[in-house]
Amino acid sequence: MGGRLPLTVLGAGYLGITHAACMASLGFDVLGVDTDQGRVDRLNAGNLPIYEPGLGEVLRAGRVAGRLRFTTSYREVAAFGDVHFICTGTPQRPGGNQADLSQVHACVATLAPLLGRPCLVVGKSTVPVGTARGLAAQLGDACPGAELAWNPEFLREGTAVADTLSPDRIVAGVTSGSAERMLRRVYARPLACGASFLVTSLETAELAKAAANAFLATKISFINAMAEVCEAAGGDVRALADILGADPRIGPAFLRAGLGYGGGCLPKDVRAFVARAEELGCGASLAFLREVDAINLRRRARTADLALELAGGDLTGVPVCVLGAAFKPGSDDVRDSPALDVAQILAGMGALVTVYDPAALGNARRARPDLGYAPTLADAARGAHVVLLLTEWPEFAALTPGGLGGLVARRTLIDARNVLDPGAWRGAGWDYRALGVAGGAEPARRPAGAVCMPGDRLADRGDGVAAGGGA
Ligand code: UDX
């Protein structure tokens, strides 16, 4: 199945490169297009311009098999493909919450007049509902044989190849049986492996992506709201999440409390969804997503406040080690990274911040050149008064109290991703704090209902370790 159906992929960003390489690995002839000549040259040389485990190998295999190539020419793309995938970015509009659709519009406006034969144009980018209907009309006007379908992409960074080759579900927003048949042909292999194929309208397909991301963000903010309540009331959010997750109706996924979500998708997609609902006159229906966003951002401020508190109320000149810059482990992406945001807030409070990340240092340096960076974890930690674990890379989760203790000046740690064993660290003399636990320690000693106020510290922990720093 699949044959030598020629496919093109418009936009060689995260989504486009992954989709192009994976489609080639499924046996299709694929031509990718991007306006950036340097990026195209790099991809044609088999070099990945992004960090994504396993994708480099798939890209190079496609190149070696002669099934994958990149160009800057839309004319070539129009002549080549029977199916064209729109994979351009839809970032947050500067100064607003809406999605910036300029790349999607530019790509369709460039392609449409060049199309000389019947074809299917398939949108994969995340767009506000209603966009596809407009693009379909534009395409139909330019080339009567060209049809539009919407097929949102649900891949995650870090597992992009597996998510593309073995998706749970394939959403086909179509307006004809022939478009549905073409998409079934494109995805024959994943469908044969058990992926579900959900046929729907253009609008529902667009909404599917926005709603899925909104739900995931809500689940994370829900558990982070519970973390706030735990901090105030003397609960432990890790135990609470385990209990909630054991209910099969709730499930354990996306209930990891901590510093919250970031990245190039969830934050901007939630905001764009709210903005679109307001345009549609149903803003009240999604008003709760504003709170989801607010809870998420509050975790960053709370983490910085905790560091301030642990430094004795003044971070001026205090050496602080930040572990993590990527928005999540397994990625070098620092877009809307909670870790980098916290590092920036701490630097703004006067701290001498040194950031270490196993993969994202280059991107972090470009995004926030004013922060301090170290090439190794040991260099970042040496002499620190406060250590903050902000991205749960395996090498951070594997840290030992003794190993890190030999590097720092003070044994003060904020585990903002809840990945370390509190008992082990406290037992080794660390002032260990986590998000979602009252004061970070021994909630049982607090009176029932006691509220953790800003500046509230466990000064009398009796472990011989100074909780404060700086002052
Ligand atoms: C997300 C969606 O999962 C994916 O379907 C969509 O196509 C793009 O957006 P991605 O941005 O790669 O994918 O990351 P994801 O793994 O979903 O994590 C998003 C953020 O949530 C990360 O910052 C992560 O650290 C955070 N997160 C995730 C939590 O804070 N707690 C959790 O329990 C899960």
In words, what does this structure look like?
The protein is α/β, with parallel strands linked by helices. It is 42% helix and 13% strand. The protein has 19 helices and 14 strands. It has helices spanning 14-25, 37-44, 55-64, 74-80, 102-111, 131-142, 160-165, 177-186, 188-192, 202-233, 237-245, 266-279, 288-310, 338-348, 361-367, 377-381, 394-397, 401-405, 422-427; strands at 6-10, 29-33, 68-71, 83-86, 119-123, 146-150, 169-173, 196-200, 319-323, 352-356, 372-373, 386-389, 412-415, 431-434. The chain is globular and about 70 Å long. The N and C termini lie far apart (70 Å). The model is unreliable at 441-471 (pLDDT under 50). Uridine-5'-diphosphate-xylopyranose (UDX) binds at residues 153-157, 213, 216, 220, 254-256, 258, 260-263, 265-266, 327-328.
Helices, strands, pairings?
Elements: E1 6-10, H1 14-25, E2 29-33, H2 37-44, H3 55-64, E3 68-71, H4 74-80, E4 83-86, H5 102-111, E5 119-123, H6 131-142, E6 146-150, H7 160-165, E7 169-173, H8 177-186, H9 188-192, E8 196-200, H10 202-233, H11 237-245, H12 266-279, H13 288-310, E9 319-323, H14 338-348, E10 352-356, H15 361-367, E11 372-373, H16 377-381, E12 386-389, H17 394-397, H18 401-405, E13 412-415, H19 422-427, E14 431-434
Parallel strand pairs: 1-2, 1-4, 2-3, 4-5, 5-6, 7-8, 9-10, 9-12, 10-11, 12-13, 13-14
Helix pairs in contact: 1-3, 10-12, 10-13, 13-14
The protein binds uridine-5'-diphosphate-xylopyranose.
